[in-house]
Design brief:
The protein is an alpha/beta fold. The protein folds into two domains: 240 residues, Serine Threonine Protein Phosphatase 5, Tetratricopeptide repeat; 132 residues, 3-Layer(aba) Sandwich (Glutaredoxin). Helices cover 60% and strands 8% of the residues. The strands form two sheets. The protein has a five-stranded mixed sheet with strand order 5-4-3-6-7, covered by helices on one side. The protein has a two-stranded antiparallel sheet with strand order 1-2. Strand 3, helix 14 and strand 4 form a beta-alpha-beta unit. Helix 10 runs antiparallel to helix 11 and helix 11 packs antiparallel against helix 12. The chain is flat. The relative contact order is 0.05.
């Protein structure tokens, strides 16, 4: 309902624009106001307004509001109707291109498929949702009778974004060509995929279709279980390979806990937080543009000196600067130590909303204490006391 409320407010906000006439302004205000919290009533209200004022200066904005409401309501008829109108003016909106192509493919008739193919190709050109763009192209192309080309497009979709939908699409067009052994392999992959987008009904349909295609070649379902297990192993290996590749690109892509992070260093090797497990970690989140960080620095250094002979306590200076090139000259100018790390997503995970923030991670890696900002006359003693408390746990 939250998104709908925003949508309704957006509709009312249109009234703030200079209206073509007082009568039109009043009518729009009335019908939108009477729509209440129902997306269906909102769409009907705006359609009523456009019927009465077909040449409204606000028509483009109202049609965009209609397609947004239709997408929320999963109203394929209105998604097609108003989505295509919006796309006549805004040809590169990836969200609308995706939803219109999908809505058109509810039907497999030639005319709808030709339109869907056009929008799916436009979606691919945006560089967004490539897997979806290719799977819709495959479906539209297959509906147009080009089965080999459809299977090839579906394979490209699976390569771009392996999931149950793209695997199912490959199987669909292979089965249409009586390539049953290949079709079973890909349909088994679809069945085995741990895809949260797959409904129970879709999984049941995949299972039924698997049995149907398997029996065509084997006269019974004997051996199908082994084929499904093999698919499970393939999907598991694929998921592991994808995770490994993601970690190569971004070692923190899968990190959900502070101790799972790897922090890039200004110089030297990156720091694996897991290597500090069992220690009390004091993390100073700062930035070059932060005046209070400069004022806090000598106080923070006093605390560090108090624990310099305590190997169980580690102090980390973590920069939150978006432009990392500013850090080195800043350190040189202010004669600060160069042992600095970059937050690389850790600040977001820990919900650091103000700078400076000092966080203490306990020996288990969980947040033990947080100091947002600092109180000059109490900071040293407060931080010292909290570090001692963390050590005592």
């Amino acid at each position: 309902m939250k998104r709908l409320a925003v949508l309704l407010l957006a509709g009312l906000a249109l009234l703030a624009q200079e209206p073509p006439s007082e009568a039109e302004e009043e009518h729009l205000r009335q019908v939108v106001g009477e729509a209440g919290s129902s997306p269906i009533e909102f769409m009907r209200a705006v359609e009523t307004h456009l019927k009465k004022y077909p040449n409204s200066a606000r028509r483009a904005d109202l049609e965009r509001a209609l397609v947004t409401a239709a997408m929320d309501a999963r109203d394929n008829r209105r998604i097609r109707l108003y989505g295509e109108k919006v796309l006549e003016r805004e040809t590169d909106d990836p969200q609308i291109l995706e939803r219109v192509a999908r809505a058109l493919l509810v039907s497999d008739d030639k005319e709808s498929s030709e339109r869907a193919l056009k929008y799916a190709q436009a979606l691919e050109r945006t560089g967004r949702l490539i897997g979806k763009a290719l799977v819709y192209q495959a479906r539209a192309t297959g509906n147009l009778g080009k089965l080999d080309e459809a299977a090839a497009l579906a394979r490209r979709s699976y390569e771009a974004s392996p999931n149950a939908e793209s695997a199912r699409e490959i199987a669909r067009w292979l089965a249409r060509q009586d390539k049953n052994d290949e079709a079973v392999r890909h349909l088994a992959d679809a069945f085995a995929f741990p895809d949260p987008a797959v409904t129970d009904a879709e999984r049941a349909a995949d299972r039924a279709r698997l049995g149907e295609i398997w029996r065509k070649s084997h006269d019974s379902e004997s051996g199908l279980g082994d084929a499904i297990l093999a698919a499970y192993d393939r999907v598991l290996a694929l998921a592991a390979a994808r995770r490994a590749k993601a970690l190569e690109i971004d070692p923190n892509s899968q990190a959900a806990l502070p101790m799972e992070f790897t922090l890039p260093a200004l110089e030297g090797p990156p720091l694996k937080m897991a290597s500090l497990q069992g220690k009390v970690i004091v993390v100073d989140f700062w930035a070059t543009w932060c005046g209070p960080c400069r004022a806090q620095k000598p106080l923070y250094d006093q605390v560090k000196k108090r624990f310099r002979d305590e190997p169980r306590v580690v102090f980390l200076a973590v920069s939150t600067d978006e432009d990392r090139t500013l850090v080195e000259p800043f350190l040189k100018q202010n004669q600060w130590p160069r042992q600095v790390y970059f937050e690389d997503g850790l600040a977001r995970l820990l919900r650091i909303s103000s700078i400076p923030t000092t966080l203490i991670l306990g020996k288990t890696g969980e947040v033990f204490s947080r100091l947002n900002g600092y109180v000059p006359d109490r900071f040293v003693d407060m931080l010292t006391e909290r570090v001692k408390e963390a050590l005592a746990e």
